[in-house]
């Protein structure tokens, strides 16, 4: 425990010292208006900030993230399939069935159709 405390205090001290050095050394005395204005890859930052956003694209993105995380959770099961118990196999099969049923439900509801 004392070693962990020493490591935390030491890293915080080093971080504070580096931040203090950058504040002392890094002061800029010359300021230019061009350097103070925002630059966004050629876009005019003074135009309307809220452009129309496709709700369909957002829905497909959320569905992709949900199914991607579920598949990433199920992928390691193939490596351990020989050492898993029958309960684990049953659990993985139920989770996969729920995932497929969810995909079919979204497909039937038309959430996966880009053009409607």
UniProtKB/TrEMBL annotation:
The chain crosses the membrane at residues 6-26, 57-80, 86-104. Keywords: Electron transport, Membrane, Mitochondrion, NAD, Respiratory chain, Translocase, Transmembrane, Transmembrane helix, Transport, Ubiquinone. The keyword Electron transport applies. Pfam families: Oxidored_q4. It is found in: Membrane; Mitochondrion membrane. InterPro entries: NADH_UbQ/plastoQ_OxRdtase_su3, NDAH_ubi_oxred_su3_sf. It is an enzyme of class 7 (translocase). One of its GO terms (molecular function) is NADH dehydrogenase (ubiquinone) activity. Its main location: membrane. GO terms for cellular component: mitochondrial membrane; NADH dehydrogenase complex. It is a multi-pass membrane protein. Coiled coil: none annotated. The keyword Chloroplast does not apply. Its EC number is 7.1.1.2. It catalyses: a ubiquinone + NADH + 5 H(+)(in) = a ubiquinol + NAD(+) + 4 H(+)(out). Core subunit of the mitochondrial membrane respiratory chain NADH dehydrogenase (Complex I) which catalyzes electron transfer from NADH through the respiratory chain, using ubiquinone as an electron acceptor. Essential for the catalytic activity of complex I. Belongs to the complex I subunit 3 family. This is NADH-ubiquinone oxidoreductase chain 3. It comes from Pseudoniphargus sp. 1-Portugal. The gene is nad3.
């Amino acid at each position: 425990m004392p070693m962990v405390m020493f490591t935390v205090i030491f890293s915080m001290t080093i971080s504070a010292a580096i931040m203090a050095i950058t504040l002392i050394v890094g002061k800029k005395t010359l300021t230019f208006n061009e350097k103070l204005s925002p630059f966004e890859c050629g876009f005019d930052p003074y135009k309307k900030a809220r452009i129309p956003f496709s709700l369909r694209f957002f829905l497909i993105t959320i569905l992709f993230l949900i199914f991607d995380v579920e598949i990433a959770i199920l992928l390691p099961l193939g490596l351990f399939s020989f050492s898993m118990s029958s309960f684990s196999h049953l659990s993985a099969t139920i989770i996969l069935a729920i995932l497929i049923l969810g995909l079919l439900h979204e497909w039937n509801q038309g959430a996966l159709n880009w053009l409607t």
